[in-house]
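4.2 Preliminary Data

To establish feasibility before requesting continued support, the project team ran the inverse folding procedure on a target of 151 residues. The structure was first converted into the token representation described in Section 3, and no sequence information of any kind was made available to the design step. The complete token record follows.
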């Protein structure tokens, strides 16, 4: 396993990506040696607002939110680089998505993300969600890098 070179806390993540409650879906990001891999952590709580309707009596984290958590981990990894200051990353495409097991309250969701291609204005990453070492979801996603608007 690669060494962790830096860990982003929730405050660091909020300085790097624009997401906020209720759509901020990653609590911590461990940046791995080499600069193109990270492991995000999402502590899944029964208090998450989506569990009210998904599903009453059998709460399951929506798959689309697992993919979003992977993407946020990838964004934090990519946008934490000094040369990316003032940039945002937007989804352009999601491919090869598979959901293997449900994610439920009490689970600690690990989001393993690797940047496959970056450069210019477009990047590509692969993500894998794991709970207790078991793969629960996977996807490949493409993102666009844009300048953050000045306010």
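Position-by-position output of the design step:
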């Amino acid at each position: 396993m690669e060494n962790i070179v830096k860990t982003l806390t929730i405050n660091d993540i909020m300085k790097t990506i624009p997401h906020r409650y209720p759509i901020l879906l990653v609590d911590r990001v461990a940046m791995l040696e080499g600069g193109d891999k990270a492991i995000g952590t999402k502590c899944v709580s029964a208090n998450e607002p989506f569990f009210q309707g998904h599903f009453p009596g059998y709460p399951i984290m929506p798959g689309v939110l697992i993919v979003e958590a992977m993407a946020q981990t990838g964004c934090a990894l990519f946008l934490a680089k000094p040369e990316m200051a003032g940039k945002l990353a937007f989804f352009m495409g999601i491919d090869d998505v598979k959901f293997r097991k449900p994610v439920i309250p009490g689970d600690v969701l690990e989001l393993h993300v690797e940047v496959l291609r970056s450069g210019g204005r477009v990047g590509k990453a692969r993500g894998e969600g794991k709970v207790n070492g078991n793969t629960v979801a996977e996807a490949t996603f493409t993102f666009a890098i844009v300048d953050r608007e000045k306010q």
